Amino acid sequence: MSRAAVPGILKIAFKLLVNDRGKFAALLVGILFAVFLMIMMTSMFAGILKRSSATVLNVGARVWIMDPAVNNVASSIPMPDYVLDAARSIPGVKYAVPLYSSVALVKLRGGTYQAATVIGLDDASLYGRPQLLQGNIQDIYGENAFLVVKDAEFSKLGNPGLGSEFEINDHRGKIVGIAHVATSGLFGIPTLYTTYSRAVSYIPSMRFTAAFILVEPKSTADIPRIQQAVARLGYQALTEEQFVQKVSDFYIYQTGLGTNVLLMTIISFAVGLSISAQTFYTFILENLEKFGALKAIGAKGRELVQMILFQAAFTALTAYGLGVGLATLLMTVARLRLPDYAAEITYLNLALAFVMVLIIAAISSLIGIRKVIRIEPFDIFRG
Amino acid sequence: MGTALQAVALTKWFGEGDARTLAVNRVSFEASFGEILYIVGPSGSGKTTLLSMISGILRPNEGQVLVEGRDLWNQSDDAIAEFRLGKVGFVFQDYHLFPRLSTAENVAIPLILKQVPWDQALTRARAFLEVVGLADKGLLPPLKLSGGEQQRVAIARAIASEPDILIFDEPTASLDGDTGRKIVSFVKEHILNAQRCIIIVTHDSRIFEYADRIMNMEDGRLTGIANGGLHEI
Ligand SMILES: Nc1ncnc2c1ncn2[C@@H]1O[C@H](COP(=O)(O)OP(=O)(O)O)[C@@H](O)[C@H]1O
Ligand SMILES: [Mg+2]
Fold it and tell me: Which of A173, A281, B63, B193 has fewest C-beta within 10 Å?
């Protein structure tokens, strides 16, 4: 017999808990509600943060050089050309290329205007180019050629196909490729790619043109040296992770987004905690006599503690599972209806909600344990 | 007939100072295997308090409970819990059955606390239900049973761990006279044996005939011991 037997007292604890359907359901709903809210809030937040760094992630350069005042990709500050030359001469730099990034107005067939992000890729290397679903990347060098990203905003350009034509800042534009990117942007406008030189000539800009300089270091060990050298020029070199972090920090700390989400998460946690701790406490109180009887029959204090911990943990984990399931379901449905829906469940969200659920379970059971440890069976029997 | 249990000058008070009530006052007695010992007396005379002290539920302020030559209350909490689990069976006045468990599961609780595997504990619980004549009620929740049947479930649970000492607090208080008599006569016939001692607290004179000895309590004091049977006291 190698059957792993659940200790009998836990089975009793399970039955005492689950057979009280109404109370068990109330407990589950309280925690489920908290888990659901926490996951929705933090997932929304994670989704927004990821999208805010969409261009950084999609271009995929190891090191980005930028004006130190840049704190998100949408509002870039062009740098003078000498920075590119200087970057190329830093030891440890394998190559450095400029990246153009700006917003332009596209005039659609019907005569309506639509803003679009235009990214200009280094002509020689096309470094940071997206993956093509249709078309040939060489065609980007053709006359008026643009690639369009097929993301949630694609339809705002009227679902263009290969060969579709449009006007961009009074120049003609022609779609030569349909591209796919890993992450769509936060700003709700479509994205076009073209060469750096075409972007510079089609889109009026300031004297300076390179929004970012993308650097491929010779090795990872060279990165700190490159960063120091760039800093001496008065500019900032960030690894991809650092840049994403900088963008995230901007949204978290400088837009109120982070505080709001944090507040909502704390509120859902507090609501869930108070509902479930209270329900669990009532559950323990109603069963106090039973725990007293168990004690009188010969259950040891630690066995009663085990029972309560088990009941709290079982309830919390079940509710956690249901809450995660519900949040996933809702997001899936939302995504079907709204292609733009940004929420995204990350392991960090799940872990955060899990930790909070454990805290809820711990606090609830602690209250119950204190009560149960103190019962005197005698007081119960005297009636 | 050996001594099952010996109480020596057991004393218990509640509260302190002016509010102090002496519930049990220097009570000494012996209970033997093979006998049914009654404790009778008016309400508030200290019967439940006394029972609780000899069954390992309530710690006395003074005095001793000697079982197998050892002072019960001089042992560790775990040892006292083991004593409650293995040596005594307690049938509470309000039964204290678990409404969310089946009748058989209720009876199995002491076995489960003794780490008997679940299935085995339930099989044995059903055998004890058979002893009390409830073989076919094992799957029902206790609240589906009548008062007398619930009492018998409580008895089955108390004897499931095969205790040496079986204790009843007012077993007939919530039963009608006939059912009460039946229960106690059943206990005397089927539950009592030469290796077991049964102590019953009651003030129901209709069941005095089943007693071997009757102890009288008043105001926390033991005021007399008489032989039972059909003797008047
Ligand atoms: N927990 C308690 N606190 C205060 N007084 C108590 C407590 N338990 C019992 N008493 C008092 O002790 C006395 C004996 O009670 P009890 O043993 O229940 O009597 P009986 O079972 O004979 O009716 C009573 O006066 C009762 O009020
Ligand atoms: Mg009493």
Answer: B193
Show contacts of A135-143: CB within 8 Å, 24+ apart: A135/A162, A135/A175, A135/A176, A135/A177, A135/A178, A136/A176, A136/A177, A137/A177, A139/A176, A139/A177, A140/A176, A140/A177, A140/A193, A140/A194, A140/A195, A141/A195, A142/A174, A142/A176, A143/A174
Residue A353 contacts residue A42 (beta carbons within 8 Å): yes
Average pLDDT over residues B141-153: 93
Nearest to B81 among A5, A293, A298 (CB): A298
* Structural contact between residues A210 and A98, judged by C-beta atoms closer than 8 angstroms: yes
Tokens standing for B130? Answer: 């058979």
Report which bound ligand comes closest to the CA of B52: 1
At A189 the pLDDT is 87
Rounded to whole angstroms, the Cα distance separating A84 from A93 reads: 11
Q: What ipTM was predicted for this assembly?
A: 0.90
- The residue type at A307: M
Closest ligand 1 atom to A376 CA: 1
What is the Å distance from ligand 2's center to B43 Cα? 7
pTM beyond cutoff 0.95:
no
B49 contacts in chain A (CB < 8 Å): 378, 382
Q: Which one, of A130, A139, A150, lies nearest residue A174 by Cα?
A: A139
pLDDT digits (tens, 9 = 90+) for A244-298: 999 888 888 888 877 887 788 888 888 877 887 888 888 888 888 889 999 999 9
Query: Coil, strand, or helix at residue A362?
Result: helix
Cβ separation A15–B101 shorter than 8 A: yes
Of A9, A293, A376, the CB nearest to B96: A293
Tally Cβ neighbours within 10 Å of residue A328.
Answer: 13
pLDDT value at residue A18: 93
Does residue A22 sit at the B interface (CB-CB below 8 Å)? no
Copy the structure tokens of residue A254.
């400088």
What does the block give as tokens for A109?
Answer: 């067939």
Using CA atoms, how far residue B50 sits from A32, B37, B63, B64, in Å, is 48, 13, 11, 12
Provide, rounded to the nearest whole percent, the portion of chain B with pLDDT above 90. Answer: 73
Q: What is the dihedral of CA B82, B83, B87, B93, to 10 degrees?
A: -100
Identify the residue with better confidence: B65 or A341: B65
On whether any CB of chain A is under 8 Å from the CB of B73, the answer is no
Q: Do B57 and A8 touch (CB under 8 A)?
A: no
Chain A touched by B116 (CB under 8 Å): yes
User: By the CB < 8 Å criterion, does B76 face chain A?
Assistant: no
Cβ-Cβ contacts under 8 Å, A298 against chain B = 81-86, 110, 113, 161
Residue A3 scores a pLDDT above 50: no
Ligand nearest the Cα of residue B50 is: 1
**Residue B176 Ramachandran class (φ > 0 left, ψ -120 to 50 alpha, else beta):** beta
Nearest chain B alpha carbon to A307: B113
User: In sequence order, what are the residues at sequence separation of 6 or more whose Cβ sits closer than 8 angstroms to the Cβ of residue B31?
Assistant: B3, B4, B5, B6, B37, B165, B197, B199
Residue pair A208/A39 in contact (Cβ under 8 Å)? The answer is no
